[in-house]
Fold each of these.
Amino acid sequence: MESKHADWILLTKIAFPCIVGMNEDELRTPQALELELGIGLDLDAAFGGELAHSVHYVAALDQVQFIAEEGRWRLLESLAGAIARHLLREPAAGEGRAAIDRVRVRVGKPGYLAGRAQPFVEIAREKSWFGAAPSAPEPGRTRVLELQHTRHSGAYHVDLGRGAEFALPDGVCALVLSGRLERDNGRELTRGATLRGGESATNARDADARLLAVGRPLLAAL
C-alpha cells in the first residue's frame, strides 16, 4: 500500500558526459546528459534520523549514473524507463533504503541541437506501474529480472540466493546493490563495488544479494 504523504527527495542539475542517442556522431562521442530526479516516499519515519527509512541520495545518484553510462541508450525514453523501474522495485534486504512510492525522471541532451532547442523527456510513475516482483531466489539459484530491454541495451536486477554464482557476459557491467559477494580470487565485493564482463561473483554469505546489471541485452547473452 502506498503511503498517505507525498514527500519528495529531489536531485537536480545532475550532469555528466555519456554515450546516448541514435545518430552516428552521438554513438561515437560522449555528450552532456542532464538529469533531474524526484523520489517520492513517506518520510515520517526518517524524521528520527535513521537513513534506512529514507533514500541515500549519493547511492541513488551513483546507480542512476551507472545505468546511463553503461547502457549506451539510443533513446532518452529507454533510459528514463530503466531508471524509474530500478528505483521503484522493492529494495533488497541490506540495500539500506526505504521502499519508494513514486518517481519522477527528467532526462535530456541540452547541447545536442546547438541552441535551437533543449530536448528533454520527463516521466512520472507510481509503484503499481512496476507490478509484482518475484520473491528472492532459493539457495544456489539466480534470478534475472528485466527492468528495461531494447535491441541494443538492457538493465536488469540479478538476485543471487545463498551460494549462487553469476558470470557476467562480455559487454555487461554490474553494480553491487546488496549483499557480500566474492570474486574468483576470493576478494570481497560489498555494496557499491563493480564487476565487468568476463568476471564472476559468488554469494558465499548467509543472506541474498542483488546486482544491477547494465549493458548489452543480458538475457540474450546467457
Amino acid sequence: METLKEFISPEIIWFIIGLVLMLSEFVMPGFIIAFFGIGAWVVAVLCLIIPGMTLNLQLFIFIVASVVLLLALRKQLTKVFKGLEKQRNINAEDVDDFIGHRTTVIKSIAKNKRGKVEFHGTAWDAEADEEIGEGQIVEIISKDSIILKVKSIE
C-alpha cells in the first residue's frame, strides 16, 4: 500500500493529467487543450521542486500558467502550423484564381527570359513563348509557384 501512495504523488498525477490533455489535442484539434497540458506539466515540475504545495496553490498555478501560455503563444504557434499546412496544400482553386485573367506587362518579356506583369496590384515574374513588349495586355495561361506563364492577346 505504501508503494501505491508513493506512486500517486502530486507530480505524477499532474504529469499524467498533462499527458492526457496533450494527447487529447490530437483527437480534438483547436490548439487550445495543449496549453492546459503544458500548464499541468509546469505544476508537476513545481511539485517536484517545492514539496508540500497545497491543492489550492497547485490549481491556481495550473490555471494561471495555462491561461498565460494560451494568451501568449497560441496566435504565434497557430500561424506557424497553419502556414506550413497552407504551403503544402496549394490546390486547384488557387491556380484558378489566375488562369484566364488578363493583365498588363510592366517589364517586357523576351523569349526564354522573364519579364514582369502586374496582377491584383502585385508585380509577378512572367514567361512567354513569344516576345511581348511593355504595356501590352496578356492572358495568364498557367502558374508555376511565383511565375506566371502568359500569352499575348493582341
Amino acid sequence: MDVKTTASAAPDEFSRSTWRYGYHRQAAFYLDGCKAAGLDVRRFVFLAIEKDAPHLVAAYELDAMDVELGRTAYRRDLATLAACMEAEARGEPDAWPGYGEAIQPLALPRWAYEQEEAA
C-alpha cells in the first residue's frame, strides 16, 4: 500500500493525479521489484487522503491493463536512463533530455490576455 495525499480523493480526480504523477508506473515498478526479490505480492493499493478537512480517504487498485501501461512506461524510462548514462560516459554533450541551455522566448498563453481584458 502506498499513501498519497491529494487535493481530491474522488475517483475521477485521483485517476487524473495517477496519470499526472505517474503512479501507474510506480505501481508496476514496485510490483515487479517485489517479484524480483521473491516476495509474493499480489496487489498494490493506493490510499488517497485528502489534504484538507474533512480529510476524506479512498483506497484504489489499478486494473491489470493500467499496470501494464505503467510497466511499459517505466521500462522505456529505464532504457532512456541507460542510453543517457552510456552517452555521458562516452563524453557526448547533451546526453540528457531537457529544454536546452540557451535563453528561449516565452509568451503568456492566449487565455491570459482574454482574462486580463475581461477584468
